[in-house]
Design goal:
Elements: E1 8-13, H1 27-44, H2 49-54, E2 57-68, E3 77-88, E4 91-99, E5 105-117, E6 122-123, H3 128-134, E7 157-162, H4 176-184, H5 189-194, E8 197-204, E9 213-222, E10 227-234, E11 240-248
Antiparallel strand pairs: 1-3, 2-5, 2-8, 3-4, 4-5, 5-6, 7-9, 8-11, 9-10, 10-11
Length: 249
């Protein structure tokens, strides 16, 4: 079972630079809150950046599945809650919930993480000390299943991006939110303006680094009640880096 003391929450005020033209908080801002919460909890438990650096390990995000029922507005204060759900050898599973000022849950997310050795850049088994710090029982190894993303079958939109120095995080690779930002830039403007992004799934497959040029290819699938955009990100050598799916209603 999860130790209830290891469930942590924090308030965030939605700033002007975190909203869209409708004054609604951006999905990428939500993802930044989530990432910040994972590190905030780790720092509070004394297994944060310094601990990871000394032990030559790092957390790498493998999968996201984020659903927003509604979007809080500019200047609203929201509460973001997170806890480490379970771990299974090389994989760690984390859940998130978002609450508005009336304590209504407006969003939730599941995520899958991999612990890597930073010298070898290879996955390593999650240690007993880490599991205990997060309050994960030794027998709690139930995974969170996030369905695989279908690859695109045709290209409707395409755009290239330079990887900037400001895209790099403390692990010396591109921050995971940047991939989502690149993919969402390829969604047709009429969808972005007139629809709401209700769900986004991401699978990170390979890293990219400063100075590279990446390309996003997007397929737009229009259905009666929603539009599905599937995104594929590759590097200059054609290596697949990330797959994403965004659902708009």
């Amino acid at each position: 079972m999860i130790n209830s003391l290891k469930v942590i929450d924090r308030d965030y005020t939605i700033h002007y630079y975190e909203v869209d033209i409708h004054k609604k908080v951006l999905m990428t801002s939500i993802m930044n809150y989530f990432e910040d919460m994972a590190m905030y909890q780790s720092e509070r438990l004394n297994i944060g950046i310094d601990y990871l650096s000394v032990n030559k390990i790092a957390w790498v995000l493998y999968k996201w599945d984020i659903t927003m029922n509604s979007y809080p507005l500019l200047n609203e204060i929201i509460k973001v809650k997170t806890f480490a759900y379970s771990s299974n050898k090389f994989f760690a599973y984390r859940k998130y919930e978002i609450f508005d000022t009336n304590n209504n849950m407006v969003g939730q997310a599941n995520s899958v993480w991999i612990l890597i050795n930073t010298d070898r850049r290879r996955p390593m088994r999650i240690t007993k000390d880490i599991n205990e710090a997060y309050g994960i029982d030794a027998n709690n190894n139930a995974p969170i299943d996030i369905e695989n993303i279908l690859s695109i079958s045709k290209v409707d939109r395409e755009k290239s991006f330079d990887v900037r120095y400001s895209d790099i995080d403390t692990n010396m690779h591109v921050n995971n939110v940047k991939y989502a930002a690149w993919a969402l830039e390829t969604v047709p403007k009429d969808i972005v303006v007139n629809y709401e992004l209700r769900n986004i799934k991401v699978t990170y497959e390979k890293e990219t680094t400063y100075g590279e040029i990446i390309k996003v290819s997007t397929q737009v699938i229009k259905e009666v009640d929603k539009t599905i955009c599937r995104h594929r990100i590759i590097n200059e050598k054609g290596v697949e880096l990330t797959l994403l799916e965004s659902i708009w209603v």
